[in-house]
Amino acid sequence: MANHDKKRGKKLILNACTLAIGAASATAYSAEQPNILVIFGDDVGYWNLSAYNGGMLAYSTPNIDSIARDGAKFTNFYAQQSSTAGRSAFITGQMPKRTGLSKVGLPGAKEGISEKDPTIATLLRDLGYATGQFGKNHLGDRDEHLPTNHGFDEFFGNLYHLNAEEEPENVDYPQDPEFKKKFGPRGVIHSYADGKIEDTGPLTRKRMETVDDEFLDEAEKFIEKQVKADKPFFTWFNTTRMHNFTHVPDEYKGKTGAGFYADGVKQHDDQIGHLLNKIKELGVDDNTIIVYTTDNGPMINLWPDAGMTPFRSEKNTGWEGGFRVPALIKWPGHIQAGTTLNGIVSLEDFLPTLVAAAGNSNVKEELLKGKKVGDMNYNVHLDGYNQLPYLTGKTDKSARNEFVYWSDDGDLLALRYGKYKYHFMIQENETGLDIWKKPFTKLRVPQIYDLSIDPFERGDTGMGYDRWMYERSFLMMPAIEKVKEVMDTFKEYPPRMAPGSFVPK
Predict the structure, then answer these.
(1) Which of 351, 372, 400 is the last residue of a domain?
(2) Do 473 and 376 fall into the same domain?
(3) How far apart are the first and last CA of the chain?
(4) Which residues are annotated with the PTM 3-oxoalanine (Ser) (predicted)?
(5) 48 and 242 in contact (C-beta within 8 Å)?
(6) Are 413 and 388 within one domain?
(7) Within a 10 A sphere around the Cβ of 313, how many other Cβ atoms?
(8) What is the signed CA dihedral for 329, 334, 339, 341, rounded to 10 degrees?
(9) Cβ-Cβ contacts under 8 Å for 22 (sequence gap 6 or more)
(10) Domain-located, residue 499
């Protein structure tokens, strides 16, 4: 286990107090409160799901697709450009720039989720929910960053991007115990809100073949326990699939006839199917909101060990391929089956939306004024919108008309405002390791795309593009005003911390 400044004693006392106060203040369980199951794949591309690609690929994802069949599919859904950013946007309802969680850096880094930022788990537990997180976290690896210190009753999962955890198996990895202790990754962690933390051992290449099954087993145990206790649950299930590198067990090798990556997708879809069937077997499918999405766009530069998207470029860029991802949601009796939602929606929107579904539609306003939850006082600016009226058909308009694109260094890359997208900085290297090595290029004039007719951002390759953009200088002032409006919110609610870094600061 890496050396991570553990402060167990104080945390035990704090967590015990939090549990006691939370139990006293929690809203009594109501049959109207839905269970909530949010499933994240990892680096899953828009085109990896047959619900989106229409059968174009050599494999299919019928279990994941069933969520869209029984509910809704988003076409303009935005995650973030990398793992930490996407996961933090979901769990905090804030832009990564605001929390500083656009990148946490390397094992043992000081950056991680702050106790000053309430999570969706914190807020749902206050409403009487049991909260469990299973699978990948990637929001900091010190004890104070673990999910069970941020609103979750139980956590079982890994703490990093997948390939970082197999590096100790490289033949040239330093064998010095002090090096491993200081710089090596922690193992798969099982922790509880009472302060108990167990390291279940390293996530080796062999364990990677089936570790999602381990996470699945614990998630299903957690869900079944809450159903038997007649308590609403919020479960965040995060798979390691489809992050590189893909290691599939023998029983899945050759399953699709389309290569090891496709076999991994097949395994992933089967695992999601098992979880969906568990919900049905427990008799709570009719009162459970189920979401499937991912943290960021695919990392195509490692093809064939890579996801696929029709959008330009890939993760860690400001192009649509880095941010626009698949997202599906079902809620029987509330979201019409077979719906396609074309409005702009983002990961940040899930916090106010799901908390509203659980019974509090005013959480955004409450947190702006200051809200006491348990023994903590929170005063934060949620960037997400309550999309419940949109999801349930009470309005045909998304509450969101803009989306801000941030780099993993916290730079403003672009703005989508209505149908137009404005690039202020671009990554000229659109694939390969240069995406991560080379800096973004700052533009003196925004590069504009009309995503309603050019969703794949191909327009600038055409001979008429420069004139088209030249004749649309009138679009720049509204964009500048919108950016100013966003930036003004940082005066009262500034970034929580500087993002992590892979180079010395």
Answers:
(1) 400
(2) no
(3) 26
(4) 83
(5) yes
(6) no
(7) 23
(8) -70
(9) 125, 126, 373, 374
(10) no
At residue 430, what is the residue type? E
DSSP string, 336-377: -TTEEEEEEEEGGGHHHHHHHHHT-TTHHHHHHH-EEETTEE
Residue 107 tokens, joined: 């094992």
**Dihedral (Cα; 337, 340, 345, 348), 10-degree rounding:** 30
pLDDT in tens, the chain (505 residues): 444 444 434 444 444 444 444 444 444 435 589 999 999 999 999 999 999 999 999 999 999 999 999 999 999 999 999 999 999 999 999 999 999 999 997 888 899 999 999 999 999 999 999 999 999 999 999 999 999 999 999 999 999 999 999 999 999 999 999 999 899 999 999 999 999 999 999 999 999 999 999 999 999 999 999 999 999 999 999 999 999 999 999 999 999 999 999 999 999 999 999 999 999 999 999 999 999 999 999 999 999 999 999 999 999 999 999 999 999 999 999 999 999 999 999 999 999 999 999 999 999 999 999 999 999 999 999 999 999 999 999 999 999 999 999 999 999 999 999 999 999 999 999 999 999 999 999 999 999 999 999 999 999 999 999 999 999 999 999 999 999 999 999 999 999 999 998 888 7
**Residue 502 in domain:** no
Check: CB of residue 125 under 8 Å from CB of residue 233.
Answer: no
Q: Which residue, 172, 444, 426, is CA-closest to 312?
A: 426
Closest CA to 72 of 328, 342, 397: 328
Element (H, E) at 273: helix 260-281
- The tally of domains found in the chain comes to 2
Domain match, 395 and 409 both: no
Range of the structural domain that residue 300 is part of: 8-400
- Strand segments (E) across 65-223: 72-78, 130-135, 154-157, 189-192, 197-199
Strand partners, 135: 238
Peptide bond into 497 cis (omega under 30): no
Q: What is the pTM of this model?
A: 0.93
CA distances from 370 to 24, 128, 496 (A): 20, 20, 16
Domain boundary among 382, 400, 418: 400
